[in-house]
Structure formats: structure tokens, C-alpha cells
Amino acid sequence: MTGPEPGEARPRSAFRAQAPVVAAVAAVAAGGGAGATARYAATLVWPTPAGGFPWTSLWVNVVGCALMGVLIVAVTEWRTTHPLLRPFLGTGVLGGFTTFSTYAVDVRGLFEDGRPAPALLYLALTPVTALAAVWAATAAARRALLERPAGGGAR
Q1: For position 33, what pLDDT does the model report?
Q2: Per-residue pLDDT for 32 more than 90?
Q3: How far apart are CA 90 and CA 36, in angstroms?
């Protein structure tokens, strides 16, 4: 058997072909662990008392969404970054930090505790504030990172 002709691509090994996928999965997993740990730390610092409004989950989601807005501007519009940074920080860290599954459980818990008004407030407030946080942070990041003052001077 002869080798590839000059100029012909050599077939990649199965491992080398899968290495980028494995790296992305590892980045997401590592980031997810870090984000979930940060979320858990927030619940330890600011626990929700029994029967209380889930302020910690609300603010974790709002802060996480705001950070996602900054991240996306930073990695897609401001700087060229390593290809694994976005899955590590966005899907991993911020995906592990934000907790929309806990949001759903909290809403159900408020309803089950016979507290429909806080449940409905939380049900509406979380997505509205999360979307507002993404929008505001994206706009602020664009102003801070992309707009340059007239005359080209540094800020």
C-alpha cells in the first residue's frame, strides 16, 4: 500500500477527529461545575427562608443574564477569542450559574403553598428582568467596548 499522493490530505485518526468535540464538552463541563458552585454559594450566603420569596434565584438569573450580554459582545464583536472560551463561559459557567429549573420549581412551590400572588409575580418578574438585564448589559458593553471617543483618544 502506498501513502497519500503529494498534496493529498491525509486522513485524520478517529481520536484527532473527535478531539475538538471532546475539548468543547470538557470546557462546558468544567465551566458548568464552576457556575453551579457559584450559584450554590449564593444560596448559602443569601438563603431563602421557608415560605419566603426566592430573591436569590431571581438575582442569580438576572446577574447571569447580564453577564451573558457582556460576554457575547466581548467574544463576538470586540475581540477574537479562543474557540473554547464561549462554550466554557457561556454554556458552562453562566449556564451552570443561572437556574431556570429552580425558577420553575420555586414557582410551583409558591403555588403549592397557597401563595398564588407571589407565584405569579415571580413567574412574570424573572423572564422580564432577565431579558431586560441581557438587553441593558449588551447595550452597556457595546458602549464601553466598541464606541471610541471622537479624536481617537483613549478613555
Answers
A1: 95
A2: yes
A3: 13
Four-residue CA torsion sign, 103, 107, 110, 113: negative
In sequence order, which residues have a C-beta less than 8 Å from that of residue 60 and are 6 or more positions away? 39, 42, 97, 98, 99
Q: How confident is the model at residue 10 (pLDDT cuts 50, 70, 90)?
A: low
How far apart CA 85 and CA 75 sit, in angstroms, is: 8
Q: Which residues contact 122 (CB under 8 A, 6 or more apart)?
A: 53, 54, 58, 103, 106, 107, 110
From residue 135, how far is each of 97, 143, 147 by CA, in Å? Answer: 19, 12, 17
Nearest to 84 by CA among 27, 13, 146, 142: 27
Enclosing H/E stretch for 125: helix 116-145
Q: Which residue has the higher pLDDT, 1 or 103?
A: 103
Q: What is the pTM of this model?
A: 0.80
